[in-house]
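COURSE: Structural Biology Practicum
ASSIGNMENT: Worksheet 4, Part C
STUDENT ID: 0417
INSTRUCTIONS: Below are two proteins. For each, the amino acid sequence is given first, followed by its structure token string. Answer the questions at the end about the second protein only.

PROTEIN I
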Amino acid sequence: MLTLFGAGAFFMRGAGCIINDMWDRDFDKKVERTKQRPLASGELTHFQALVFLASQLSVSLGILLQLNTYSILLGASSMLLVVMYPLAKRYTYWPQIMLGFTFNFGALLGWSAVQGSVDWGVCLPLYASGIMWTLIYDTIYAHQDKYDDMLIGVKSTALKLGDQTKPWLAGFSSVMIGCLTATGVMCDQTWPYYAGVAVVAAHLTRQLYTVDLNNADDCASKFRSNSKLGVVLFLSIVAGTLLRSELKADNPATDADDK
């Protein structure tokens, strides 16, 4: 299941990036950081991108069809979000929210793939924490292009929040940590999970304290550092779940009570 989801995330992220670059080709030509992207620079044609997109989506569909019916329908519905996200930046200063809904759909799909349906008591706070995380790192990311975006009319949270970005990101971080904690409680998680959440909180605090939102290179560096945060969170979930399984194996009466 981990292999399926790893491959699915890889190919669907690729498909999402292609769709985004197809929608934004004319915008990307006008932004210093993105003007050398294959479609914007003319290295690839629109038709070539369409063919590659079809191949990515075909592989993704093949992976999705390995799951149960509930998950197949749930996963298929995420395509609406994938297509809508690039349009959001044209109409709202909060496209990062739409990106959050799109990027973190795996919080719902992963649970349903294993359990057969979505347990909203667990998945909703996990999904919300992912959305908050996306708002944090993608707002930092958007600060790289804020001057170009102002000139060409692209909207983002970086432009909306401006000088108040850090207080807002601190608020998003607090909600993220609160939701991760709530998820752990709902899943009866053990101390390694909460230790991981504490490390995540420390990472976010340091990231927000040190980031220079007027320095594009520093914004890019802080954005990339979130991959480390993801690894920490993943390992803490695995370790916490393994310990929980051991404890239940040692105390079968407790496991029976839970059931």
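PROTEIN II
(use this one for the questions)
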Amino acid sequence: MKKIIAADQIRAADQHTIINQPIASIDLMERAAKAFVKQFTSLVSRENSVHVVCGTGNNGGDGLAAARLLAEHGYTIQCSLVDIGGELSPDCQNNLTRLTNDPDRISNVEDLVIQEEVVIDALFGSGLNRPATGLFAQLIQKINTSSAKTVSIDIPSGLFSDCVELSGAIVEADLTIAFQRPKLSFLIPESGAYVGEFLIVDIGLSEDFIEAQPSDYFLLDKDDVSGILPVRKKFQHKGDFGRIQIFSGSFGKMGAAFLCGKAVLKSGAGLLTIHIPKCGYEIIQSGLPEAMVTVDDSDDQISTGEVFENTDVVCVGPGLGTDVTTTEWLKSLLRKSNKPMVIDADALNIIASHPELMDEIPAESVLTPHVGEFSRLFSKSLDGLERIEKMKSVASNRNWVIILKGAHTVIALPNGKVIFNTTGNSGMATAGSGDVLAGIITGLIGQGVSSDRAAQAGVYLHGMAGDLAKKRVGKMSLMASDLLNELPETIINVT
């Protein structure tokens, strides 16, 4: 997994690279500008006019270099440079000298006139140490209110790299092309909203140096997952791939049991038993004949049901409801069983209403809340970063794996690591998507994958299935069943 490191560590990586490659700082800036331009030209047609707005620091130097390179690529370029009497950084000054045409000088907000179709934001970089105010705030506001598409170099101007500080003006980028690593703030909902889509370009910093830096934050990618999935041997049988129980469903919510159960089987599990209320018997038996079914005493909700002695893993929660009888049953289940569990949806809501049950959750269980469920369980947080620090602490103290579902789903492991997923899209914000995720993770644990590794693989596969589904049906039409349809192809692609 690749580490996410702080702004001061990135600057240290710059210096390490400059000293040890060796390479002059101006040449490293040129390399970064070329990487930015290569990505930009692959996305933005030369038919679009471009306005590059540059500050006085190294991010402004990146912008000046990008303006020169884009002009060489045949783009119509307008360049503006903030000039309020201060000195430019040495590399910014050097790139100013390299420009054929002197840029417009901006000393007040009226000097910035945006008529182009694309704005490249190069006002501030990752070294920002105070909110953008005054003239810079006015310039940022002008960028934000223009009709141009905005592309930020490395980070949207005014955004902090490592914290959620939104008191100043911040560029609202449509796209951010960042160097070497995303910033932590890109992955937090409140600050990430300013980033738009982001792409990472390699500028040749020392990966050995970066990976040696202390950090608890990591990015999950395909290489991390490919070695997790079980490999089937010739003479194995279904009993070798896990005996799994799901407790799921209530009147009107039997679809959750179906989606979760099918995800368990699609992820490779050998034997699945679904415990459901009587009202769902025909639905599950006809819709998912591969699963065995046990039926509750109740017609409409789960009120009975025991964990079998030979069960490897239990999933509880999808479509469960929070009826009083279901609540009392869940209390009993948690107190009697020490099997690892995947706990989702209404099971989490019941536990939130009865926090003493947290002491009954088995070690190495996986909890899969969305933000609302997490807040009910562990109290509200000021922002996404505080929420992540809270889940990190709980996962470590309780020996659980916690998955916080969102645009960049976050996994907190008992060892203190926090892992951000890199797959998925907003089309997956649809009913049943979480039921599929719970099923995938349960299926992997049943096959002998540890809870922490199953969580990583499950989250990645779930998101990748969403990305494949988006290509086929688009974001607006994407349904949870589309994730199930794409899961086999996803597993093939990863392995």
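ANSWER KEY EXCERPT:
Q1: The first strand starts at residue 2 and ends at 3.
Q2: The chain has two domains: 2-212, 222-494.
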